[in-house]
């Protein structure tokens, strides 16, 4: 019972933290005040390793099957670079959930290498763009 | 006492005679040389120069045309087509996709000429370029400047009409109405303002989704997507988040703290992503619906302004779908 309680408390804290997402990029500004630019850059680079590993060793063999443009992995890299690790991770997860279903009806199509893909860049999902 | 040397005088006389014999030949040589030079030189003629520039413009060789128009302006500064040449320079830059240079050229014209056919046209062109560059605020400033300097009601009305449409593009409906109302009663029919006002009033019917509500509903994974009419995404978000939550719970319950922590970390990303995605989906939904409304509004109620001027009047071309 104690474990369940600790799990619930942990998850509520996480859910509360995620509320900051609704407030746009304010959290990112605070992050920048706390960390130096160099440390932030290193953190971003480290968080990009798994994605780059995926692009270089898995996707190159598996083939580009993502129906979106930019592809999900590229979108994640751009999101991390543009919004930092915290928001980048959230945007990346969001994109993986949205990939190739209802987004196809909502966003504009674009032809890449003779294939029709759905155009959904990071800028289309920025709050500040609204 | 001077002793005259008659031999020397004689030789001088012969020398002068011989030289005088060559004088006509030297003149004829000089003439033939100058005639040859004139045959090789090109005489600039204002008509030929202007027509050549126009020909290059018609052939879509815009940047060469710019040079020829500039040559025309330099050599014939008093020609009556100087204003047209300046306007064509702006047009050439515009069509050659050098927008900054185009704006500079049109501004040069508006600085030099006041309330003439091409200066008014230039104001509208500058406004169009700023709209194409998405610099709507600069376009508004430019049109407001035109309204301030001109006394011609027709030109003012066209500027008001254009400003109204810029506000429509940004979904600022009230500002758009404000500027359309400034159009003088005499021109209201010309711009079909009655029909436009009726169509514009339908903006209240544009379906909208509240981003905050979408985010709030996402507390239950997929709820926000469901609200935004993204049913497949809602199902995926619900199943994925539900599965990760259950997996994290089971891991903690069975004493696998590290695994539980890892799953919770991943689950947090997807849970927060579900909220983030719902909020952006609401914004996207609103953007799309507003965009479709503006598209229909343009199609049904916009009077196309060609900005071609005859004398001082604005030439309008109408296109309506009934």
Provide a concise account of the structure shown.
The complex is a heterodimer of chains A (130) and B (322). With 130 residues, chain A is mostly helical. Chain A contains five helices and three strands.
Could you say which structural class the secondary elements and strand pairing of chain B correspond to? mainly alpha
**Strand portion of chain A:** 5-15%
Measured as a percent range, the helix fraction of chain B is over 70%
- Give the number of domains of chain A: 1
Quick one: CATH superfamily of the largest domain in chain B?
Tetratricopeptide repeat domain
* Estimated structural class of chain A: mainly alpha
Task: Describe the oligomeric state of these chains in a short phrase.
Answer: heterodimer
- What's the tally of helices of chain A? 5
The average pLDDT of chain A is 74
Please count the beta strands of chain B (DSSP E, at least 2 residues each): 2
CATH architecture of the largest domain in chain B: Alpha Horseshoe
- The run of helices and strands of chain B is HHHHHHHHHHHHHHHEE
Uncertain stretches of 5 or more adjacent residues of chain B = 28-38, 308-322
Number of structural units classed as domains of chain B? 2
Strand order of the largest sheet of chain A: 1-3-2
Q: What would you report as the Rg of chain A, rounded to the nearest angstrom?
A: 17 Å
Key words describing this protein structure:
heterodimer, A: 130 residues, mainly alpha, 3-stranded mixed β-sheet, 5 helices, 3 strands, globular, B: 322 residues, Serine Threonine Protein Phosphatase 5, Tetratricopeptide repeat, 2 domains, two-stranded antiparallel sheet, 2 strands, disordered C terminus
């Amino acid at each position: 019972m104690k474990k369940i309680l600790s799990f619930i408390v942990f998850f509520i804290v996480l859910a509360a933290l995620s509320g900051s997402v609704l407030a746009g990029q304010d959290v990112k500004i605070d992050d920048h005040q706390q960390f130096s630019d160099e440390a932030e850059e290193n953190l971003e680079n480290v968080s990009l390793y798994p994605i780059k590993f995926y692009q270089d060793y898995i996707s190159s063999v598996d083939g580009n099957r993502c129906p979106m443009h930019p592809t999900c992995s590229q979108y994640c890299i751009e999101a991390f670079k543009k919004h930092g690790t915290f928001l980048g991770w959230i945007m990346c997860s969001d994109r993986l959930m949205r990939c190739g279903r209802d987004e196809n009806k909502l966003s504009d199509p674009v032809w890449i290498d003779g294939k029709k893909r759905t155009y959904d860049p990071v800028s289309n999902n920025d709050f500040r763009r609204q | 006492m001077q002793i005259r040397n008659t031999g020397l005088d004689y030789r001088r006389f012969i020398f002068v005679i011989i030289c005088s014999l060559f004088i006509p030949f030297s003149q004829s040589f000089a003439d033939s040389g100058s005639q040859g030079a004139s045959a090789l030189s090109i005489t600039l003629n204002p008509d030929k120069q202007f027509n050549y520039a126009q020909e290059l413009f018609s052939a879509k060789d815009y940047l060469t045309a710019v040079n020829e128009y500039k040559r025309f302006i330099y050599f014939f500064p008093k020609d009556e087509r100087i204003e047209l040449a300046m306007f064509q320079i702006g047009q050439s830059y515009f069509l050659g996709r050098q927008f900054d240079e185009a704006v500079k050229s049109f501004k040069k014209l508006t600085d030099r000429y006041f309330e003439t056919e091409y200066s008014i046209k230039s104001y509208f062109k500058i406004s169009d370029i700023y709209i194409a560059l998405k610099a709507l605020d600069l376009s508004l400033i430019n049109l407001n400047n035109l309204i301030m300097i001109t006394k011609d009601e027709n030109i003012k009305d066209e500027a008001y009409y254009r400003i109204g449409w810029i506000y429509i593009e940004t979904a600022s409906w009230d500002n758009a109405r404000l500027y359309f109302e400034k159009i003088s009663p005499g021109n209201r029919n010309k711009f079909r303002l009655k029909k436009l006002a009726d169509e514009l009033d339908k903006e209240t019917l544009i379906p909208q989704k509240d981003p905050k509500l979408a985010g709030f509903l996402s507390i239950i994974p997929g709820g926000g997507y469901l609200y935004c009419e993204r049913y497949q995404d809602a199902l995926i978000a619900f199943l994925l988040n539900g599965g990760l939550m259950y997996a994290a719970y089971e891991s903690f319950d069975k004493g696998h703290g590290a695994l539980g922590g890892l799953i919770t970390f991943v689950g947090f990303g997807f849970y927060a992503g579900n909220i983030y995605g719902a909020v952006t989906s609401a914004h996207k939904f609103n953007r799309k619906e507003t965009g479709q409304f503006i598209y229909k509004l343009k199609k049904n109620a916009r009077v196309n302004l060609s900005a071609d001027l005859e004398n001082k009047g604005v030439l309008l071309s109408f296109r309506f779908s009934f």
